[in-house]
Design goal:
The chain is mainly beta. About 5% of the residues lie in helices and about 40% in strands. Strands 1, 2, 3, 4 and 27 form a five-stranded antiparallel β-sheet that branches. It starts with 19 loop residues before the first strand and ends with a helix.
């Protein structure tokens, strides 16, 4: 997931560190660092779409960095741009839609609809911004967005919830939001479901894409003019991988969160974190396999969606089924219960509800400065009557519908 001068660290998922002090304002509080995660409304009336901030050391809830009613419908991925602002992929629920929103990176105030719904590749009418999930940034400040042709118009699967007018793709935009190019991944008739993204910090021409629908990880060569730029890095459903979501690259290892397969008549839960060699793609093993599972049966980590390394070197894991953030021993192959080092954020703390792909560390933020900043919805989105379930829903809420 790259940075800004204010030392913001991106890793596919995003996080922020902390140490707080109270500002002179009676309404706003400043923090030197914080861990930011997304939170949604699910089911209806439970929770609210927001970007929440937690103390990265103690896990204490600091407040909503981007508050409910501040333009969000269902936040999914997020990244800081080179300008220091926060860019959030916002899903459209169980209807076609989606956009990228821009927020002030210090106060969380809404700035604008940065990349509107249906922004298209002029050379390919099927490649357009629709159901955006993962987002990342390269050293030049260009944005990459994973567009997913699937939305939740019913249970996930091949029965009517694919948008025939959209193809799975990666779209590249300039730091100002201008379209640059796209990489088609799959036709709308057989979508693979691109979700999490990660750029190799040591070779930023390599972009990795988690494909939840077919259980694979793709590699995109971002070199201009590259022949056959999209290749398969991890073959579909190999070694038990079924529904990858968030990706993390650290010390030559690609960590893949495996949520489970959303396709077919019944949802198959995975609850695994795989580790692969970034050089060869070979499976190295699993992380904390002894503590991942069904939280209703005592497992402390349920529904892994995003991993991140904290400023102090801890392996932080976001799980949406139990709405919690855990600290894990990243030793590959450790099957002991001791791999669970405790919760950084207890289940549901601060109103955390079904977090997905956002786990970022940021510095020098202000909490409580954005509550009154409510943007007008775009004409397209307001006509759609957006709800609070989206394609990140493909990663979770939709999967939960199949379980109910």
């Amino acid at each position: 997931m790259l940075n800004k001068t204010a030392q913001r660290v991106l890793l596919t998922t995003t996080v922020f560190g902390l140490m707080s002090f109270t500002a002179s304002s009676a309404k706003a509080t400043q923090f030197s660092s914080a861990l930011l995660v997304d939170s949604i409304e699910y089911p209806a009336g439970v929770g609210a779409p927001a970007i929440k901030a937690y103390d990265p050391t103690t896990g204490a809830f600091l407040g909503d960095f981007v508050s409910p009613g501040n333009g969000l419908n269902e936040p999914d991925g997020a990244v800081f741009g080179k300008d220091g602002n926060l860019y959030v992929t916002d899903l459209s629920g169980d209807r076609p839609g989606g956009q990228v929103l821009e927020y002030n990176g210090t106060t969380g105030q809404f700035i604008k609809n940065f990349i509107p719904y249906l922004t298209a590749d002029p050379n390919n009418s099927l490649v357009k911004v629709s159901h955006p999930d993962g987002i990342t940034i390269d050293p030049n400040g260009n944005f990459y967005i994973a567009n997913n042709a699937q939305y939740l118009g019913g249970n996930p699967g091949p029965s009517g919830n694919f948008d025939p007018n959209v193809s799975d793709s990666i779209m590249e935009f300039s730091p100002t939001g201008a379209f640059m190019r796209s990489f088609a991944l799959a036709p709308s008739t057989s979508p693979i479901g691109p979700v999490g993204l990660a750029i190799d910090p040591n070779n930023p021409n390599n972009l990795y894409v988690a494909a939840i629908n077919n259980g694979s990880v793709l590699k995109v060569n971002l070199t201009q003019g590259a022949f056959n730029p999209v290749t398969t890095f991890i073959a579909p459903n190999s070694n038990g991988l079924s529904g990858p979501t968030g990706l993390l690259i650290n010390n030559g290892i690609l960590y893949v969160n495996d949520y489970g397969s959303p396709l077919g008549s019944s949802f198959t839960k995975a609850n695994k974190i795989f580790a692969y060699s970034l050089t060869t793609g070979a499976l190295l093993g699993q992380v904390a396999s002894g503590v991942l599972g069904d939280s209703t049966k005592g497992s402390p980590v349920d529904g892994p969606t995003a991993s991140v390394i904290s400023p102090t070197g801890q392996f932080i894991e976001v799980s949406d089924n139990n709405s919690a953030i855990a600290i894990l021993d990243p030793t590959i192959g450790n099957t002991s219960a001791s791999a669970f080092k405790g919760y950084l954020v207890q289940p549901g703390a601060g109103g955390l509800n079904f977090p997905v792909l956002t786990a970022l560390y940021a510095n020098n933020i202000t909490i409580g400065a954005n509550a009154a900043s409510v943007p007008e919805p775009s004409a397209n989105l307001s006509l759609l009557g957006l709800s609070a379930l989206g394609v990140g829903a493909l990663i979770k809420r939709g999967l939960k519908k199949q379980q109910s």
